Each structure stands twice: as structure tokens, then as C-alpha cells.
Amino acid sequence: MTVFVKTANKGALNLRATPGGKITAQIPNGTPLEAQSEGEWSKVEYNGKIGYVKTEFLSISNDKIITKNDLKKVYDSLQSTLKTIEAILE
Fold this sequence. Notes:
- By secondary structure, this protein is an alpha+beta fold.
- It has a single domain (2-64), classed as SH3 Domains (SH3 type barrels).
- Helix content is 24%, strand content 38%.
- The strands form two sheets. Strands 6-5-4-1-7 form a five-stranded antiparallel sheet, with no helix packed on it. A two-stranded antiparallel ribbon has the order 2-3.
- A hairpin with a 2-residue loop joins strand 5 and strand 6.
């Protein structure tokens, strides 16, 4: 899956040899990567190096970081829309 590096401070993301291991490279914010999520860590390839990055710093969108608060707003909006549709159908 293609994802983008999204750090809160727009700094580089550390690529590590193993989850939590030695830093082998730094990946600039906004860089697209192919990733395999393995929970807290994702396996990625960057400039020919295979390593691991924290999944929380990856986003499916290059526009902005998707936060829990963003997801809650979408959920609340969908719930409201669903209630309106249910009322119409009754």
C-alpha cells in the first residue's frame, strides 16, 4: 500500500533496521513509500534500504495527518446523516 511520511513537526522520519533498532536513514516528510503494516511498526523500502518505521507517522493522504479527532468528526457527521435518513424513512 502506498503511504506518505507525515510527522507532526514536518521533520524527517527515522528508518530503522529492525523495529526499535538502529537508525539507518532519515526519510523526509511527505515522501511516498510502499509499506506493509505490522501493527506499531511498518516495513518499508526507502532508497534501496528495507527497514521499519513507526506506523503512526504514515498517512494514506499526502494532504495532512489524519488524527483521531478528524476521524471522530467524520463519524459524528455520518451518525447525524444516518439519523436524518432514518427519520425520513419512518
